[in-house]
Amino acid sequence: MIKLIIAIIRDSDANTVTTALVAEDFRATRIASTGAFFRQGNTTLIIGVEAEKVEQVIAVIKSACGPAPSDGSHRATLFVLDTTRFEQI
Questions:
Q1: What is the mean pLDDT of residues 57-83?
Q2: Do residues 8 and 65 lie in contact, with contact meaning Cβ atoms separated by under 8 Å?
Q3: What pLDDT was estimated at residue 89?
Q4: Would you state the pLDDT for residue 36?
């Protein structure tokens, strides 16, 4: 089964996360986005992977983002969705 990971990360972590994903041979589509209460800049990554690689992708993102800030906020929000097809052209 194929999974679609939507990762919404802080702009400050975007380059580190995408570099880490590419180093592990994962590809992502990067989209600039805005959200949260303060309308802070975010980056949304769309990543298609086989189901058995989801935990590896999540581990790469966690490692690249570093620890959560002490103010109770978070560095990333991840959604993992089932998808029926994944094709690169």
A1: 89
A2: no
A3: 84
A4: 60
Q: Select from 68, 65, 49 the least CA-distant residue to 57.
A: 49
Q: What is the spatial distance between Cα 2 and Cα 69, in angstroms, rounded to a whole number? A: 32
Task: Check pLDDT > 70 for residue 42.
Answer: yes
User: H-helix or E-strand containing 45?
Assistant: strand 40-50
pTM assigned to the model: 0.88
Angle between helices 11-23 and 54-65 (to 10 degrees): 130
Any domain includes 62: yes
Q: Flag whether 50 is in a domain.
A: yes
Q: Which domain holds residue 18?
A: 2-83
Which amino acid is it at 33?
Answer: S
The domain tally of the chain equals 1
